[in-house]
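In keeping with the milestone schedule agreed at the kick-off meeting, the structural modelling team has produced records for the first pair of proteins. Each record is given below as a sequence line and a C-alpha cell line. The laboratory manager (R.T.) confirmed that both were archived under the project's standard naming scheme.
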Amino acid sequence: MKQVFHKIMSLAMAFVVLFSTMSFTIDMHYCGDTLVETAIFHKAIGCGMEMELPSTEGCSITKKNCCDDKQLAIEGQDELQLQVDKITFEQQVFIASFVHTYINLFEGLDNNVSSYEEYKPPLVVRQIFKIDETYLI
C-alpha cells in the first residue's frame, strides 16, 4: 500500500510541476460581440466573414471589419518554489485532503455488504393483484 501511495504522490507532483511551468496561448475569434471560435496551441480559423483590405486610392471612407481576433497568453513559472516552509495554510489543507482522498480511493471493501439480507420479507395479508384485476365480459 505504501508503494502505491508513493507512486501516486510522485505522479501527482509531476503533473503539478508540468502544469505550473507550462506556457500556452488561447486564440479567440469574435464576430461582432459574439465569440465564434476558441483555439488552444494554434491560431483560430475564424468564421470566414473577414473583409479584405480595400484600396484607399481616391476614397476617404473605409468600412470597419466586424470580425476581431484576440489572443490570451498564459505564462508559466520559470522557477519552482522548492521550499516547503513558504506554503500557506490553505495549500497545506489542500495537500492533506488530496493525500487523504487518494489513500482511501484504493482501499476496497472486504466483502460485498448488502443490507437487505438480514430482513425478512413482509407477510402477505391479501392478494393485491386479485383485488386490482378487471375482467372484460
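The second protein of the pair:
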Amino acid sequence: MDNHPASWAPRRNLVVVAWGLTTLLLVGTVLDALFGDGKGAVLTGLATLAVGAFAVHWTLIRPRLAADADGLRARTLNGTHRLPWIGTTVRLRSTRRLGRDGVTLELEYDDQLFIFGQTDLGEDPRDVLDVLTELRARSAGA
C-alpha cells in the first residue's frame, strides 16, 4: 500500500492541456470575431466554453477521490462527501458501447451513487479498486 496514492484526480497534464486549449480557442474566437465571420466566432466561442468547463471542473475537484482508514471522500462540485467504509459498496461496472469497453468505479452509500471513470481518477479503475480493497481490509483489521 505504501507505493500507492491514497487519492486520485484527473492527470495534471490533462488539466494543463485543457487550459492551454481553452486559451488557444479563446484567441481564435477573438480573432474570428474581429477578422472573420460571426458564425465562426460563435462556433469557436461554444468550443471555448465547452473545453473551458472541463478545465474548470478538473481544476476544482482535485482530488476527486481520497481514501483513508476511516473511509472515502468523494469530491464533486457540490462539495466533499464523506463515505464511511461501513455501509459503502464499492464495485466495478464494465460496459461496451460503440465497440469500446469502458470500466467505471461505483461507490454507493445510502441513496448516493458516485461513478468514476479513468479520466476522473487518473488511473485505471481496476487498479484503484485494488488499493481501496486493501485499505478497507486494513481498516477492518485495525
